[in-house]
Amino acid sequence: MNHYETVAEALRYIRANALQQPDLKAIAAHVCMSPFHFQRVFTEWAGVSPKKFLQYLTLRHAKATLAQSASLSEAADSSGLSGSSRLHDLFLQIEGITPGDYKKQGAHLHLNYSTGNCQFGSYMVASTPQGICHLHFYQSEQQALQELRHLWPQANLVARQNELHRQVQQFFQNRLTPLSPKLPLHLRGTPFQLKVWEALLRIPEGQLSSYASLAGSIGHQQASRAVGTAIGSNPVAFLIPCHRVIKSVGGIGEYRWGSERKMAMIGWEAAQQQETTGPAHTDLPLFHRQP
User: Fold this and answer.
1) Which residues are catalytic?
2) Whole-model pTM above 0.90?
C-alpha cells in the first residue's frame, strides 16, 4: 500500500515546525493517527522508522553527504572511473530531440501518455517513439494533461500505455537489473540543459550534490544560477534525479513538485542504502524553511 500522502503531510508539518522538533506523538496527532499506527504506516512506506528516516534529513547529515559526494567525485575523476552505485547511469540514456523538432514543438510527433502511482505519489508519463520525454507528479490529472499539452503544443497526444511506461513502473519498483535494457529518454532541451541533466544521472543514489559542485562537474564553475535553472526545467522527475541537488549550506532548495516530495525522495533513497548514521542528532533541525 502506498502511504505517500500521509508521509508527505507529516514531512510538511515537521518542516513547518522544525525549530520545535515535534515528537512522534505530535506528528501522529497532526495526521490524525495514533503514534503506533503512524509508526507502522511510515515504516511500511520508508523501510525504516520515522526516527531513523529523519536522521537522513538533518543538516549535519546533508553536509556530511555533500562532503562525501565531493570526495567520491574527485576519486572517480582521478581514476577515470564513473563511480559506483550509479544506477541511473546503468539504466538510463539521454538522447536530445533534433534542433528541427525542438523548434517545431512536437509538430507531427506522436506522444503516448499514461498515469501511474509510485512511492512518491501519482505521476503522468509520456513518450515519443524514441523514449520517455515527460514525467511529472500531479495532484490533478486534468491539470497534468493541460501541462503536457502546454509543453508539447503541436504534438498528437494519445492516451496509451506502452512498454516504455511499464519500464518506468519497474524503475520505481526497483525491479530493473543490470541486464535490463536501458530506458531511453528523448528530451527537448538546449545543449546546456542536456549537459546538466546528464550530469544529474551521475549522482549516486543516496548521495547529494550542491548546485556549485554540479556546475563545476560540467566545467562551468561560475554558472551555478544557470545550472539551477536547468535543474528546475528537468522534464523527467525522479528518473533524472534533480532532487539530489541541495544548497551548499544544507538547505533543501526548490523543487517543482513540492519540497515535501523532495524530502521524501532524499530520505527514502538514503534509507534504501541503509547507511549507518549513528544516534539521532536531536539538536539539529531538518532542512529548514528558507527565509
Assistant:
1) 242
2) no
